[in-house]
Amino acid sequence: AVASLQGCAEAASDSKWDGAAQVEELGGCGVKAAVLFGDFFADYLECLLFAGLVAHFGADNVHHAPDKAHFLPERAKKYPEASCWVPGLPRAKRHSDILAQIDTYDLIVTGHPASVEYASLFAEIADRRPDRTVMVNGEDAVQVKVMQSIHPTGRWFVREYDPTMFSCRDGETFPLPLALNAYDVPRFDAKADRDIPILWLGAGHFGRGPYIDVLKEYAPPGSVIRTEPTPRDEYLRLLSRSKYCIVLHGAGKQTYRLFEAAAYGCSLISQWLPLMRDDAFEFAWTFRTPDELRSIIQDLPQSPIGTLYQYQQIIQRHTHVARAAQFLAKALP
User: Fold this and answer.
1) Do 220 and 198 contact (CB within 8 A), yes or no?
2) Residue 206: left (phi > 0), alpha (psi -120 to 50), or beta?
3) Distance (Å, rounded) from C-alpha 133 to C-alpha 117?
4) Strand ordering across the sheet containing 242-247
5) What are φ and ψ of residue 296, in 5° steps?
6) What is the residue-level pLDDT of the chain in tens, covering all 333 positions?
7) Who contacts 300 (Cβ-Cβ below 8 Å, separation ≥6)?
8) Is the CA virtual torsion 64, 69, 72, 75 positive or negative?
């Protein structure tokens, strides 16, 4: 099973993304995996990882519980800027069914439990299969003590990684950034008519107010700066028409917009975060303060550069398939 996991990870890492057809080609590695979401709600990282595991091992070999609204198209009506829905995902199983067959799984992924009941369930699984159980927490605020109490010597994957947050030296903690749901990505169109200079769509809370004030005052004419909800179809149309897209921190520093805007051909103007060191964001503009954002807006070139390179990097190395491969390379000892 370990050899199969490593083989799948290597195959996906070396391949070039070419849409949903490649997902079918990556399946059938002979590994059986279970993904157990918590009872609060499955975060984007858990959902994208689950979809990536399905791409690697096939829908018949990846089971999950319970069912989550993240996998339904209707979710896009409430969260227009980030949908983790992927076609063809398997139906959820009952926890009791998975628990009864827990010894048959080669890989067991547990999410973030919000209740004592789920924490006890995950702890029982970790005790029974300590060498095959890993925890993934993509919440904005990582509940360190909860993760440590469930699996104190295990492997943890978190979206927001800060080694100073973890005091338990027995376990291992790895960063696992968000990724792109590659099913929704169009082909890059270098000739697209991009008539919107700067785009910002998103809520005004999470400390974003001073940055939005700068955008409203200094963004060029024709820019779209909007804080009210926008239907997903309209959001994607606006992305495809925009030269630059603003990316601000939310409740957590990483947001799905970083990957989606890049995949839709926008040049990024992003609030800085460690992930920006990745080569995919070589041509992104970054800022740490409202004054730095103002300076960037005032000096922007009329025509963005590096958008094709950025697009290629994202769809090759930052899709749910690629992120699952990165996860598999470190998931088991």
Assistant:
1) yes
2) left
3) 18
4) 224-226, 196-201, 242-247, 267-271, 285-287
5) -65, -45
6) 444 444 544 554 444 434 334 434 444 456 789 888 776 556 778 888 888 888 888 888 888 887 665 555 555 444 444 455 556 666 778 888 888 899 999 999 988 777 777 888 888 888 889 888 998 887 766 666 677 778 777 788 888 765 555 444 456 778 888 888 777 678 888 888 999 999 999 888 889 999 999 999 999 999 999 999 888 789 889 999 999 999 998 877 888 889 989 999 999 999 998 888 888 999 999 999 999 999 999 999 989 999 999 999 998 888 888 888 888 888 876
7) 197, 198, 220, 244, 285
8) negative
Residue 65 DSSP SS3: strand
C-alpha torsion 180→185→189→190, nearest 10: 0
CA dihedral 143, 257, 289, 164 (to 10 degrees): 20
Alpha carbon of residue 137 to chain centroid: 11
Q: Which amino acid, residue 253?
A: K
- Neighbouring residues of 293: CB distance < 8 A, sequence distance ≥ 6: 211, 214, 215, 269, 287
Residues 6+ apart with CB under 8 A from 185: 19, 263, 264, 315
Q: What's the rounded Cα separation, in Å, for the pair 96 and 112?
A: 18
Burial class (CB in 10 A: 0-12, 13-18, 19+), 123: middle
